[in-house]
Specification:
This protein has no helices and 16 strands. Strands 1, 2, 3, 5, 6, 8, 14, 15 and 16 form a 9-stranded antiparallel β-sheet that branches. A hairpin with a 2-residue loop joins strand 5 and strand 6.
Length: about 180
Amino acid sequence: MKLTKTIIFGLILLSIDSLGQGKSSENKPIQIALKAEHWEYKPQSVEFLEYKERPAMKILTSSDQVVLKDFTFENGTIEYDMEPLDQRFASLYFRWNGLSENECFYFRTSRAENSQAIDAIQYAPYIDGINLWDMLFHYQTSADFKKDRWNHVKLVIAGKQMRVYVNDMNTPTLEVP
């Protein structure tokens, strides 16, 4: 049985404090176009389309990743819009060194429209190929996000700290100290 995972990403903005390639002196946001040439992915796993009046990237399968080409992220801000169409998860990986070493922020999309669900969003790193989600349960919380519409997400990452904002850009929804 083939599992499908549909995640729609709209606008993707990166504001970088430092890059693996060198420091950005201007610290201006970099807007990443949702076009195939900017991303690495397996054939037939992603669709680039116009969705709800904006360019979008639709991830079709549950077992594949889409990785930004030629870019190393260390610290900064990642902002994006997403619509949770999958019934399980919508994940964003950063500080990506492959499947074995990365950091992950994700939505449990079945919790959409349930602002009281205590596990709607979570942060978990992968170390030596092991997802530490169950050891870091204190980095999960409720979040007010909706089905059938764009939700704005912002991750502010500095060293070992992260603040996550979901739809409300004034108050962090999740803080990793």
